[in-house]
Amino acid sequence: MYRYDEFDHKLVADRVNQFRGQVERRVSGALSEDQFKPLRLMNGVYLQLHAYMLRVAIPYGTLRSEQMRMLAHIARKYDRGYGHFTTRQNIQYNWPALDEIPDLLDELACVEMHAIQTSGNCIRNVTSDQYAGAIEGEAEDPRIVSEIIRQWSTFHPEFTYLPRKFKIAVTAHKNDRAAIKLHDIGIVVKQNDAGEIGYEVHVGGGQGRTPFVAKKMTDFVPKAKLLAYLEAVMRVYNMLGRRDNSYKARIKILVHETGEEEMRRMVEEEFAKIDASEMLTVPQEEIDRISAYFAPPAFETLPADSQAFSQAQADDADFARFVRANVVAHKQDGYAIVNISLKPIGGVPGDATDAQMDVIADLAERFSHDEVRVTHEQNLVLPHVKLDDVKTVYDALAAHELATANLGLISDQIACPGLDYCNLANARSIPLAQEISERFSDLDRQYDIGELKIKISGCINACGHHHVGHIGILGVDKKGTEFYQISLGGAADENAAIGQITGRAFTEEDIVDAIETVVTTYTDLRADGERFIDTYNRVGMAPFKERLYD
Amino acid sequence: MAQHAAKRARFQAVTANRLSDGEVVYFSPDNRWVEAFAMAEVADGAEAAETLLARAMPADFEAHVLEPYLFEVLEDGQAYKPASVRETIRAAGPTVRLDLGKQAEAKAE
Fold first, then answer.
1. What whole-number distance in Å separates Cα of residue A119 and Cα of residue A125?
2. How confident is the model at residue B2 (pLDDT cuts 50, 70, 90)?
3. Distance of residue A313 Cα from the nearest chain B Cα, in angstroms
4. Alpha carbon of B73: minimum distance to chain A alpha carbons (Å)
């Protein structure tokens, strides 16, 4: 994993000291709220319904054990004993006091963490595939280029005041687990016919009020040229992106209004200028230096199968279910990727207590080469567990309510904080996720239903990714009362698609029954082996609509 | 931000968040910011509401609270209650964590 050098340490320490002074001046009255608000937002501090909220960056969702332990400590010391993992692979604390946040940030800095690039109209924290470096079939570890982008984008003077926030995601696998086509820029690390590593770049994706799937801008940018290409995209956006209307200020609107071809032409023209200057050509020695941080851990040479692993599944049906749902094949023989669901039945999606975070930190240290990953679907991953150790890890997880065997199933929902916490929300998301989870709590039924991604947002900003849920749910406000609109057919993977709205919204009392109607319509209509999304794509909206409204 | 005061609301109160910790507070009859909704002053009519908001926002209000605003309340027998889901949740705490927020403090007392 990447480790700070002296410049990184100084950069973060200076930033904390600067913010400490800003907080002191705000509390003393030297700064007004209008002056202070953009400063606190640049440091990840929002004001929510009940308190301030601090969003901490977890670059490309990768954590060391000591970092996870620090997140637990922060939850205990400065918050209310828990944190909320987000769809940006970050963590949010819901209750920190403003005057304690500088001390909190000081403690975070001790483990090379911060809240920079988690808010404001800058290039945000880069996200990536949670299975990076562990899954078979990657062109290379996507965290290498993610880290290069992080360093380039942090405090980039030209891109500190963009028209709106800007999000970049990276994958290096044919199966997109980072939702790259729903980002301002989505990058696929790939190998060309000559065996060279480069990047396919997609631009103009996003959700919110006006959702779009990104357009492919180029098929292959050579490795050393990526920053020049990204700078070209950013520069075109920074020059032409709208600043008169925040709802139309994201690059997706620029791409849509300008047209894909014209956007490509402008980017290529800018890229040619930047490339000619060679200012942003990444030196090979720097690529090598960063790559070394992401070298595979010292895996043992093990047989592909483990007798202990097989026997444990035969002896323990619950463990066998956990393996079926949550354990994924590793690229290294004798190892597995272990997913930790933060979606216990009836629980709050993405929440983890300080004690749970400590347990996960310990397990990562003992059994996963010191690494934890955060997924954009609000779960955690131990990426490098020996097959022989999976049962031990499972037992420890089960003892702390972390072994729910529901990955990718109907109860593994994304939900934003919604009106229980969020200042922007129109409706609650979490109670709905809990009710759906309870309604479908029977795991056998969940396995029968198969892969089904429900995503819930409490407002049109779509932090809960409802546009790309197989079943999406959007909370709306009608005269102070919560209603819920359903959309179907969305997808966030390599076949990214925006869901279609079924029709009029449902009341809080009726929405879970409506979801059940959608699910039973699918199970009634599905052909052998079809997932929900396959059936929807085959039969379309009509039969679902008919059952929901007739 | 959604679900603030309705234009035709009869009864309204003033709320804000406290500067130091973000706690939800209400403007009281004795010109203080208090944590309990039950202690908030309720204005009857649009004119009284604007007067109440003006009282809550003297020149130095930003030294204590953030973004004061009016919100609608309803008469509920002998007491008042927030009209919207949003303000009900602000007055109590998250509906999914009854051990947190004002509702938890009320239970502990």
1. 9
2. very low
3. 35
4. 12
CB A466 within 8 A of CB A505: no
Residue of B100, B102, B103 best to disrupt the A interface, most CBs of A under 10 A: B100
Q: Which of B19, B20, B95 sits opposite A431 (nearest CB)?
A: B95
A283 shares its domain with A143: yes
Residue B95 has its nearest CB partner, among A32, A420, A423, at A420
- From chain A, pick out residues whose CB is under 8 angstroms from the CB of B3: 426, 477, 480
pLDDT tens by residue, B22-35: 999 999 999 999 99
Domain-wise residue ranges, chain B: 11-108
Q: How many domains does chain A have?
A: 4
A424 and A539 share one domain: yes
Q: What is the pLDDT of residues A39-90, one digit of tens each?
A: 999 999 999 999 999 999 999 999 999 999 999 999 999 999 999 999 999 9
Does A366 reside within a domain? yes
CATH code, domain with A78: 3.90.480.20
Q: Does B74 touch chain A (CB under 8 A)?
A: no
A269 contact partners, CB below 8 Å, separation of at least 6: none
Domain hosting residue A50, numbered range: 6-109
Q: Which of A113, A97, A129, A88 is nearest to A23 (CA)?
A: A97
Determine the distance in angstroms separating the CA of A277 from the nearest CA of chain B, rounded to an integer.
Answer: 46
CA A288/CA B17 separation, integer angstroms? 49
CA distance A45 to chain B (A): 11
Q: What is the distance between the alpha carbons of residues A222 and A219, in angstroms, rounded to a whole number?
A: 10
Contact A29 B23 (CB under 8 A): no
Are residues A445 and A522 both part of a single domain?
Answer: yes
Q: What sections of A399-442 are H helices per DSSP?
A: 430-439
Name the closest residue on chain A to residue B65, using Cα atoms: A33
User: Is A30 a member of any domain?
Assistant: yes
Which chain B residue shows the shortest CA-CA distance from A433?
Answer: B96
Q: Is the pLDDT of residue A473 over 70?
A: yes
Query: Which residue blocks in A154-250 are alpha helix, DSSP H?
Result: 226-240
What number is the ipTM of this complex?
A: 0.95
- Number of C-beta neighbours around residue A430 at 10 A: 28
Cα dihedral A48, B95, A452, A456 in deg (nearest 10): -30
**Which of A270, A293, A316 is a domain's end point?**
A293
